[in-house]
């Protein structure tokens, strides 16, 4: 079986060439199959006497895979020529290239090609798309003809086709030559000849421009069928005979753009010189992004740290946006994505919810129903576009009467160019539709998706000019995936309530649309975490809305909590209330320390960490009377350098590594080794514990850890528990 690909620029006449060539081959007694790979699906029209046949893509769009039949997509045309049209989506939507791939997969499942002597592929010349390059891959066409006229853009397309072919003819040459389809433009012959000579290819056929083609096509026929004795027909017959007997094949040898212009237009190659505005003015290396979170004019100021630092992606933007948006409890999130994308986001959402329920004592499994739905994009949507399915889904969601509908795009919907803004015509005054265009990893990582959802939702929902409500605060940027998110909030809320201050809105955590609308009614905002993302979000609210923030984030440990309460009290004129809370907890803290001293006083503590704010641990350890023998700082932290407000001297070493760790453990013999990660090498000589990513807030952060150490000490690890790690972890996690 010989397989021939006919490539050319759109509108150059390749379908006319292909169908007349198929007709000529059939007259030689060959069983011929012509496969139209152009979305216009008119390749076989004149082999079928003007009839447009059902395309493969239209067929699979409406047919159950179990009902597929070869006869539904394979038609018989002139000369018993087999006719198949791949088809494509409506112009401007979907992905025609993906459609070609899908059509070929179905044809291969039917093993159609093996039933013919020759297969002709009529292909659009857009070989920069992987779908249109399918016919020139190794398992398909072994011979390539390029149809062109003498116009420069036609020859430019021909050269691009050669570039595409060169990617797939590494094992054997594939190009038979050029089919010159005349347009009767000035100097046409000379241009085609110069191009053919430059790329080292023969002109296999010259097709004159003739009214005979129009006459035949008006009759719904190929020229070969309409007039078998035509002189033009003899050109196709001659080429058909050469194909049957075997054409000489050539390696693809495309020209550079400069060489092409020189060969066709006679332009002299020039050396590119930058304009003064493009010239570098400094030899200093430039960052990938011009990023400064304090620069309100910077377009890149809300980028995640992983993008700024060009790190491997940590989850996708789609998941990040979905995981945050779902916290608007009276809105519905619509994921415009395949089921698999939505599944990953759903797992992130529901697993956190299930964990929270478990920690509150709920029995599992618990039925969770996050306000999260999916358009369930499949192969058909990837080819034909998914906006119709999105519109249908939004219409169904509207029946639930949510306060808002939030549509989030994924990689697949972004790749095919679905316009999710199209559904905004469905919104109502009391039911806005908000779109977040994350497009998954195309837009960045999980953190980037979080930032995109934060900023988009704030801009679309928050009302300006709302009345200020005294003694209220907003809480901004809680870590919703942390296991202690709600317990930490309850501690903070308890402090605030004791001072007569109420929480207005949590952005974004277990909130409502109305609370977000009235975000600006609170005179003060409390930032939960002041890490990279927290700082970005804080700067956003300050720049965009002029919001006031407390200088301190959620407090961790006694000293930070004391300072935090004093700051809140000063802002609201509630110093006495704040002081009373501090005094009451000072007594409890002192009592807890006294209880822990018998077990931990004099014990050696070694810390290896990439956390640079550790006063909550250090103060508690020192208050108990522990000895801090070593503080090793790991070198991959992106935070600022180590800092302490305790005014103490520490045996600290930066750029700490495994070799130093092993040496110092032997040197100092710690009783407790505290790290950010659980060591793979366990030991019975010391207790190993981990620093939580999100520690408990409040006065007793360090106390909670110290109590765990005391329990471990009391259990006498050198005795009966020594080799029973599983049982130990069960009762003392």
Folded structure, characterized:
The chain is α/β, with parallel strands linked by helices and 733 residues long. Helix content is 39%, strand content 14%. Strands 3-4-2-5-1-6-7-8 form an 8-stranded mixed sheet, with helices on both faces. It is elongated and about 110 Å long.
CATH topology (level 3) name of the largest domain = Rossmann fold
CATH H-level superfamily title of the largest domain: P-loop containing nucleotide triphosphate hydrolases
Could you tell me the mean pLDDT? 86
- CATH arch. level architecture of the largest domain: 3-Layer(aba) Sandwich
Give the strand order of the largest sheet, numbering strands 1, 2, ... along the chain: 3-4-2-5-1-6-7-8
Binned strand content: 5-15%
Summed up, the domain count is 4
The number of E-state strands comes to: 20
Alpha-beta content class:
alpha/beta
CATH class categorisation of the largest domain: Alpha Beta
- Largest sheet descriptor: 8 strands, mixed
Helix fraction, binned, reads 25-40%
SS field, number of helical segments: 25
* Shape annotation: elongated
Give unreliable regions as ranges. Answer: 270-299, 357-367
Q: Distance between termini? A: 69 Å
**How much is the radius of gyration in Å?**
36 Å
């Amino acid at each position: 079986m010989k397989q021939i690909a006919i490539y050319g620029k759109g509108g150059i006449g390749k379908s006319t060439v292909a169908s007349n060539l198929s007709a000529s081959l059939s007259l030689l007694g060959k069983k011929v199959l012509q496969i139209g790979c152009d979305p216009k699906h008119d390749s076989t029209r004149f082999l079928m006497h003007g009839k447009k046949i059902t395309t493969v893509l239209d067929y699979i769009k409406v047919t159950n895979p179990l009902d597929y039949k070869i006869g539904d997509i394979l038609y018989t045309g002139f000369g018993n020529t087999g006719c198949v049209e791949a088809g494509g989506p409506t112009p401007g939507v979907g992905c025609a290239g993906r459609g070609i791939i899908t059509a070929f997969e179905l044809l291969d499942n039917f093993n159609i090609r093996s039933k013919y002597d020759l297969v002709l592929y009529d292909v659009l010349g857009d070989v920069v798309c992987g779908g249109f390059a399918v016919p020139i891959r190794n398992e398909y066409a072994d011979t390539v003809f390029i149809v062109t006229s003498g116009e420069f853009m036609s020859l430019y397309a021909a050269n691009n086709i050669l570039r595409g072919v060169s990617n797939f003819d590494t094992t054997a040459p594939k190009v038979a030559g050029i089919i010159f389809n005349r347009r009767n433009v000035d100097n046409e012959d000379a241009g085609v000849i110069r191009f053919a000579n430059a790329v080292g290819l023969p002109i296999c056929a010259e097709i004159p421009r003739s009214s005979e083609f129009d006459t035949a096509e008006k009759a719904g026929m190929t020229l070969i069928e309409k007039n078998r004795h035509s002189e033009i027909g003899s050109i196709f017959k001659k080429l058909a005979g050469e194909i049957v007997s075997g054409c000489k094949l050539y390696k693809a040898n495309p020209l550079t753009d400069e060489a092409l212009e020189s060969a066709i237009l006679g332009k002299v190659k020039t050396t590119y010189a930058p304009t003064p505005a493009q010239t570098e003015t400094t030899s200093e290396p430039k960052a990938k992004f011009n990023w400064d979170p304090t620069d309100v004019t910077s377009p890149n100021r809300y980028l995640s740290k992983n993008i700024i630092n060009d790190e491997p992606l940590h989850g996708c933007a789609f998941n990040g946006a979905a995981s945050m948006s779902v916290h608007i409890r009276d809105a519905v999130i619509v994921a415009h994505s395949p089921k698999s994308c939505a599944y990953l986001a759903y797992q992130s959402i529901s697993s956190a919810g299930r964990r929270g329920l478990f920690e509150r004592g709920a029995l599992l499994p618990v039925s969770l129903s996050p306000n999260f739905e999916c358009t369930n994009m499949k192969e058909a949507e990837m080819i034909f576009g998914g906006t119709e399915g999105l519109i249908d889904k939004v219409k169904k969601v509207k029946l639930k009467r949510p306060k808002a509908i939030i549509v989030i795009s994924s990689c697949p919907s972004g790749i095919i160019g679905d316009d999710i803004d199209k559904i905004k015509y469905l919104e109502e005054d009391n039911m806005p539709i908000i779109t977040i265009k994350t497009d998954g990893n195309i837009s960045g990582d999980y953190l980037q998706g979080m930032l995109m959802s934060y900023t988009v939702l704030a801009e679309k929902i928050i009302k300006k000019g709302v009345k200020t409500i005294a003694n209220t605060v907003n809480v901004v940027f809680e870590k919703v995936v942390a296991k202690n998110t709600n317990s930490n909030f309850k501690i903070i809320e308890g402090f605030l309530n004791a001072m007569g201050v109420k929480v207005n809105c949590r952005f974004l955590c277990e909130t409502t649309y109305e609370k977000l609308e009235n975000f600006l009614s609170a005179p003060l905002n409390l930032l939960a975490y002041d890490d990279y993302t927290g700082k970005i979000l804080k700067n956003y609210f300050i720049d965009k809305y002029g919001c006031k923030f407390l200088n301190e984030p959620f407090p961790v440990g006694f000293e930070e909590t004391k300072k935090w309460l004093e700051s809140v009290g000063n802002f609201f004129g509630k110093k006495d209330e704040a002081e009373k809370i501090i005094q009451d907890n000072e007594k409890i803290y002192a009592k807890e320390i006294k209880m822990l001293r018998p077990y931990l006083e004099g014990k050696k503590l070694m810390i290896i960490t990439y956390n640079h704010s550790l006063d909550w641990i250090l103060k508690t350890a020192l208050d108990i009377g522990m000895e801090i023998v070593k503080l090793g700082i790991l070198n991959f932290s992106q935070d600022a350098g180590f800092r302490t407000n305790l005014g103490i001297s520490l045996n600290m070493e930066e750029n700490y590594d495994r070799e130093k760790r092993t040496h110092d453990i032997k040197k100092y013999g710690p009783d407790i080794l505290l790290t950010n990660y659980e060591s793979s090498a366990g030991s019975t000589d010391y207790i190993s514990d981990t620093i939580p990513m999100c520690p408990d807030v409040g006065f007793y952060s360090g106390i909670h850890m110290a109590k765990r150490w005391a329990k471990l000490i009391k259990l006498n690890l050198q005795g009966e528990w020594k080799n029973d790690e599983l049982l130990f972890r069960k009762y003392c996690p």
